[in-house]
């Protein structure tokens, strides 16, 4: 049976398409979750708990950077004064399942974008439909870059900060497994979605909901927010805060550039 034209589709038809989008996306996530399960030893021991060790790549790099800038060992990390403990009967089981699902979602993200594109494509012009591969490629690339940024920058900086921050020497840091995993999940997904900002701005600009003037007007507020976030997740030194803040500010500036490009293109049309 031929698929209906978008103008002929009823609300229930759109709802049915949305339902199948969710079903196929869920299946894709589950398949990737099974893959994460198959490499779970490496996933947990090396990847997830990597930032809890002083030998983690980011800490070693920052130490070398500290030496090259003449700061000696000021930002070198030699120990992690905390332990991670499980305090719930089913804590490790729940964490195992949800972290596999999380990485399943990350790995299945390009396919989910493809499903979303197929869902919205009937409402697009023919020339816009041809940009499907470009949309999937750049959206996936930005998301993965964000996840990598969250893993190699935000998470280790956050771990180092909370591990070394203390109100008294009598207090010993013993973090729960759930709180650590929550921080890992939030940092990676939030960073991945934040790096999608240029794509979001592109579509909002196409719809006329966002303009370059609007983004420029609120640039100073965006800078303040970025600097606050960088100060929260990093140790109290300028080098670490700068490393976190610069990519986020570049993403915002790129969004302004994209909005300008879209606005000019819409005016010419």
TrEMBL record:
Record bears the keyword Protein transport: yes
Keyword Protein transport: yes
Membrane-spanning intervals of the chain: 21-39, 95-114, 134-155, 188-209, 221-238, 244-263
A matching Pfam family: TatC
Stretch forming the signal peptide: none
Membrane topology qualifier: Multi-pass membrane protein
Keywords: Cell membrane, Membrane, Protein transport, Translocation, Transmembrane, Transmembrane helix, Transport
Domain of life: Bacteria
Chief location: membrane
Xref: InterPro entries: TatC
Subcellular location: Cell membrane; Membrane
Family: Belongs to the TatC family.
Function: Part of the twin-arginine translocation (Tat) system that transports large folded proteins containing a characteristic twin-arginine motif in their signal peptide across membranes.
Oligomeric form and interacting partners: Forms a complex with TatA.
Protein name: Sec-independent protein translocase protein TatC
Organism: Flavobacterium pokkalii
């Amino acid at each position: 049976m031929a698929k209906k034209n978008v103008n002929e589709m009823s609300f229930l038809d759109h709802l049915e398409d949305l339902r199948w989008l969710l079903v196929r996306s869920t299946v894709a996530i589950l398949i990737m979750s099974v893959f994460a399960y198959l490499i779970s030893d490496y996933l947990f021991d090396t990847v997830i708990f990597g930032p809890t060790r002083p030998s983690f790549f980011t800490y070693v790099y920052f130490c070398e950077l500290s030496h090259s800038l003449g700061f000696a060992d000021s930002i070198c990390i030699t120990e992690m004064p905390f332990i991670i403990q499980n305090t719930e009967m089913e804590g490790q089981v729940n964490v195992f399942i949800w972290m596999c699902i999380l990485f399943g979602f990350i790995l299945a993200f390009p396919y989910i974008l493809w499903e979303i594109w197929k869902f919205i494509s009937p409402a697009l012009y023919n020339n816009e439909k041809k940009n499907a591969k470009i949309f999937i490629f750049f959206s996936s690339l930005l998301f993965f870059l964000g996840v990598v940024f969250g893993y190699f920058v935000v998470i280790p900086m956050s771990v180092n900060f909370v591990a070394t921050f203390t109100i008294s020497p009598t207090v010993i840091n013993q973090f729960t497994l759930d709180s650590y995993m929550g921080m890992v999940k939030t940092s990676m997904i939030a960073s991945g979605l934040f790096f999608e900002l240029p794509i979001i701005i592109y579509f909002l600009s196409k719809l006329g909901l966002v303009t370059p003037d609007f983004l420029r007007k609120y640039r100073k507020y965006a800078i303040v927010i970025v600097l606050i976030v960088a100060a929260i997740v990093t140790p109290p030194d300028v080098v670490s805060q700068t490393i976190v803040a610069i990519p986020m500010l570049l993403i915002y500036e790129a969004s302004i550039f994209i909005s300008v490009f879209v606005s000019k293109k819409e005016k010419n049309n």
